[in-house]
Amino acid sequence: MRKFIVLSFFVALCFLQAKAQDVSLKGGLGYAMQSEKMGVLLGARVGITPKIDLAGGFGLFFPDTYNNGNGTKVKSNIWMFDVDGHYNFTPGGAVKLYPLVGINFTTGKVKINDTKTTNTEVGLNMGGGLAYSFTSKIDGFFEIKYILGNADQGMLGFGVFYKL
């Protein structure tokens, strides 16, 4: 947990050091392939240089609740925290392509009747994305990445960045 707090503090410092025109807020939807869950993606992107961005965010996935047939009620929930570096390629026009690499913290919670279990795993993000500038303030994005670690999982995400 200490590592998570230190990393969160570092990310917050990086965001505070950036110029206002280099910061974008992120909102979108995500799909976790292994756990087959949809969720909401929220975060920010900071331009470190014209070619390098630092992106951080949370994925909050919709919980599942079901009865397993013998009267046992099961509820599960997953959330993720990611910090990724992007290296931007601009082939022309309003399109930006980027490979990404970063770190992921995935927390899963399961409640069976009145018994709760929580587990947090750390993983390495590897993938890529595409951003398209619709206006001077709004970029659409699509990302695909794989989380390597004890909670291996493919992720798809899409949504918008709003430039501050």
From TrEMBL:
The keyword Lipid metabolism does not apply. It comes from Imperialibacter roseus. Keywords: Signal. Gene3D superfamilies: 2.40.160.20. The lineage of its organism: Bacteria, Pseudomonadati, Bacteroidota, Cytophagia, Cytophagales. SUPFAM superfamilies: OMPA-like (SSF56925). Residues 16-162 form the Outer membrane protein beta-barrel domain. It comes from the Bacteria. Residues 1-20 form the signal peptide. This is Outer membrane beta-barrel protein.
